[in-house]
Structure formats: structure tokens, C-alpha cells
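Researcher: Sequence recovery benchmark, item below. Answer with residues only.
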């Protein structure tokens, strides 16, 4: 399955037309109300919500969900149930669906996930975030101190809508050089409610950081960020420090809700902010 490099917008993302007053109201609910609940309570509520999609009856949501969210009636044909199952036994199976065939690409660098590129720019251009009276710089997303990642690296944040494919793949061939789990909140991820600061949740939410060093000795920093209703972020068993990783090998999967941030030594060639990217597209 060949993947085009041409960038395009996702016409279904009409939510960008949400009025400012409504966006600010949603942000208030996410940050000031939900975000101030104890983390253990956030997780308990999220796990309860996520459990609904593990029930057998939820498999009947799949067909109408596809009709509502995809123009291609044969959309599901390129995927298969997870974990070598023969059928999609619940909605969660659909959510963590697998490719029948990993996308083919001739590019040396590819996008690791599918979704909306909601932020893109040089590290030194991305503003710091205020999180609970604490100023956090972009390196904080990746669990590092300011200055560790070169300022000329490019930061990208891809928001994975509920309908998007929810597995994260390696953007390059390389070696895994660091894995870090960062505990945190589970505030709402949807970037349109934060307007001027779409990456705010990545500064404060629970996440896994994975560094991959390429053949030229350059490190690519990935942060796999969870949100409300995330049952868990599950790393592939092969994702261990010192292991070699191939381009498009799977790194992780989400059980509902996610964002993938990356700090890379080069900028994307075919995509800009507010365009749609897919797994295997040329980065």
C-alpha cells in the first residue's frame, strides 16, 4: 500500500470553527475543573469510561461509527482485528485495529502516526506553557531540561482524533536510546479548545518518551501522550533501550485518546500546521 506525500487538510475537522467563547469554556472545564481533580480520580473515571468499549455489545457501534466518520464504505478492509483475533469483538478492538499490510514508502523519514498536525515549528519558536504556576519549556514534554534538545530541532504535535488509527510507529531506522514514563494528568487533548496553545496538554499529561538515534548519530525524540478515557498506553515488547528499530516498526498503541509529539533534526518536507498526516507518509 503506497502512501502519498501530498499534504492536505481533513475536511471533517470543522471543529476549528468553534466560537472562541465555547473554546474558552471547554478549556476552563478541562484545565480548571477536570485538571484540578486528583490524578487517581482522573484515572478511575477514565478507566470506567474506557471499560464501556471493552464490552461485547459495543461491537455494534463499529458499523454506524464508520458510516458517520468515513466516506469510504470499505475503510475497514485495510485493517484487521488486533492480537490475531478473527473478528472485532468490541469497539476497543476497532480502536486499536492493525494494518493488514504496513504502508510502503521510499522515504528515509516518515510520519509515525495518523492525525492532525496541530503544531509545528522550531523548538526556540514554541512558547513555554504555564502548568499549575510552573513554567515549562518544550523540552519538558520529552522529560528533559531546556537546552538538551538543540534549538534548531523541529517540534511537531499530531492530534489523534477518536476515529484515527491509534498505533505509533518508528519514523526512522535506528536504535532506541532512552525510554521514560512521565506520570501526569489526563486533561482533554483536543487542540481547538486551547487556541493559541494547542500543545498545552502535552506539557502536563501522562506520557511515554522514546528516543531513537539514527545512523547519523542524531536523536529523534518522541512523546506518546495520553488523555481522558485512556485505559493505558502500551509499548511494544521490542521497545527496549539498546534495541534496533526499523522504520515503521510499531512503538506503541493507545486504548482511547492520544497525541504524539516529536522533536526531529529536520523539518517536515510536505506538511504544515493544520494539515493531515498518515502513518508512512514522507516526513
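Model:
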Amino acid at each position: 500500500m503506497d502512501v502519498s506525500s501530498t499534504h492536505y487538510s481533513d475536511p471533517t475537522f470543522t471543529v476549528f470553527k468553534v466560537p472562541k467563547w465555547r473554546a474558552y469554556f471547554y478549556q476552563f472545564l478541562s484545565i480548571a475543573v477536570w485538571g484540578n481533580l486528583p490524578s487517581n480520580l482522573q484515572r478511575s473515571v477514565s478507566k470506567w469510561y474506557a471499560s464501556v468499549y471493552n464490552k461485547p455489545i459495543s461491537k455494534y457501534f463499529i458499523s454506524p461509527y464508520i458510516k458517520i466518520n468515513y466516506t469510504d464504505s470499505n475503510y475497514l478492509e485495510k485493517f484487521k482485528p488486533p492480537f490475531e483475533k478473527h473478528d472485532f469483538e468490541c469497539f476497543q478492538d476497532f480502536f486499536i485495529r492493525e494494518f493488514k499490510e504496513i504502508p510502503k514508502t521510499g522515504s528515509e523519514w516518515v510520519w509515525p502516526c495518523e492525525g492532525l498536525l496541530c503544531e509545528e515549528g522550531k523548538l526556540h519558536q514554541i512558547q513555554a506553557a504555564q502548568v499549575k504556576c510552573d513554567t515549562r519549556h518544550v523540552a519538558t514534554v520529552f522529560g528533559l531540561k531546556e537546552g538538551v534538545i538543540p534549538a534548531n530541532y523541529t517540534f511537531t504535535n499530531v492530534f489523534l482524533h477518536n476515529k484515527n488509527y491509534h498505533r505509533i510507529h518508528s519514523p526512522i531506522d535506528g536504535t532506541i536510546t532512552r525510554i521514560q514514563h512521565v506520570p501526569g494528568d489526563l486533561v482533554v487533548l483536543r487542540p481547538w479548545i486551547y487556541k493559541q496553545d494547542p500543545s498545552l496538554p502535552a506539557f502536563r499529561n501522562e506520557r511515554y518518551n522514546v528516543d531513537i538515534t539514527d545512523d547519523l548519530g542524531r536523536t529523534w525524540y518522541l512523546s506518546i501522550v495520553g488523555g481522558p478515557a485512556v485505559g493505558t498506553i502500551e509499548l511494544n515488547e521490542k521497545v527496549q533501550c539498546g534495541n534496533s528499530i526499523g522504520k515503521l516498526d510499531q512503538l506503541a498503541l493507545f486504548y482511547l485518546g492520544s497525541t504524539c509529539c516529536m522533536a526531529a533534526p529536520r523539518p517536515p518536507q510536505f506538511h504544515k500546521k493544520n494539515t493531515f498526516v498518515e502513518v508512512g507518509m514522507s516526513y
